[in-house]
Amino acid sequence: MRDLSRPSEPCRAVQERMAAETAARTAAAAPAVALSENAGAPSALRAALADAIADYAPEIISLSHDIHAHPEVGYREHHAVAAVADLLRAHGIQPRVGVYDMDTALRAEIGPGAPESAGSAGSASTAGTAGTAGSAASAPAPTIAILAEYDALPGIGHACGHNVMCANSVGAFLALAALALHEDVALPGRIILQTTPAEEPDTAKEILARRGMLDGVDAAIQTHSYAYDLADQTWLGVRRIRAVFTGVAAHAASQPFMGRNALDAASLALAGIGMMRQQILPMDRLHAVVVDGGRVPNVIPERSELNIFVRSKYPETLKDLVGRVEDLLRGAALMTGTGVEIITPEYTNEMPVRTNGPLTAAWVRSQRERGRDPLPTGVVPETIAAGTDFGNVSQRVPGIHPLIRVTDRPDVALHTREMERAAGSPSGDGAAVDGAYGLAAVALDWLYDADFRRAVRADFEAAGGAVDVEHFWG
């Protein structure tokens, strides 16, 4: 008989089976599509970029280790933003800290049209205007943003690998700035480094987007740490809901008939969510916790509160599922004679990520140049999908959020202590450097090839074009 003082151990056969299926699909699948050699940035320029990344590799790894050793939760990333700012300043780039009224958000720019305050690498006169982007002098320069996260998880630190992701983005930006400082390398467009706090507890990218983060930005790129190298993977949309049930307090022994039990309403809602899981799409997710359920058992609880996450793969199915959950909450209130207030944020939570095909092909080529081979879509099961506020960016402008392997163990999952250790390990260091090259190479490909930029935009428009994320929920 099992020791009932301890929880049962989850069956690891599930992960083992998934790993075996992934290996079989990998062997059978066609390789991920890579950008052709005659597209994007010239090979000589990519070679110069690789040299710049090699020069910066010790600092890229040092930044990753520093952030890993000083985990900070969302909106409190003061050490991380200072570390990034100091590194940029050490290389002659003056970032702006606290942009868009967010204390731990940082922005730096290089290339034509960048503010003079960005430093010598960021001034238009130094960065130059040569390249295929040229049109009228007054036309805005093509602009690509490299986004960076650096918040940690409460209690288990960088178990999502944001330290590696930050090092990817900052390292890419520094290498591109180094190229711009050479007289024979003129960036034909603008590159923005934008740090985005609080991906874990909030949807800061949405808040930043509403405040102007993406104004004038034509594309955005960012990595994510993982147990595999993946060109593309499903990222679910998320809607966060608070449900507050209000009942009538009464003595639970002498006059229970005079009460209306708010905890009963919460319990019924949880049961309804459990039963609803049978009638939702395989990729949908519903999960909830009781935040408030009363204080003592001899008083009928007059208040209860649920914190609920609703997730779905597509924007339209997310909207439908949220409506069904809200109906369920109202039904629980009707059954118990309680009131219910359904509270949602005033801004849209995580949208599903829309992955741009041509940008993904550029990423695949960059990673093969580093000895990696990102897996194509469908090889790794979708059932391990999560969510990210990069989705809110990718629905506004063309973007990619590829996953980079930080561990040699495919069974290591995000938000675990094993992933936290991997993010600070030698395999995490390798991902920090390779990802930095990848983002920088994608940015160069996009900047130097007008036909490639047009293909990126065409792919975005074919997928539906820009979504009005701000007003998605009406």
Automatic annotation (TrEMBL):
UniProt KW keywords: Hydrolase
KW Hydrolase (keyword) present: yes
Molecular function GO labels: dipeptidase activity; para-aminobenzoyl-glutamate hydrolase activity
Domain of life according to the entry: Bacteria
Gene Ontology biological-process entries: folic acid catabolic process
Domain named Peptidase M20 dimerisation: residues: 240-331
Region (Disordered): 111-137
Cellular component GO terms held in the UniProt record: cytoplasm
Organism name: Actinomyces massiliensis F0489
Record bears the keyword Nucleotidyltransferase: no
Name of the molecule in the record: Amidohydrolase
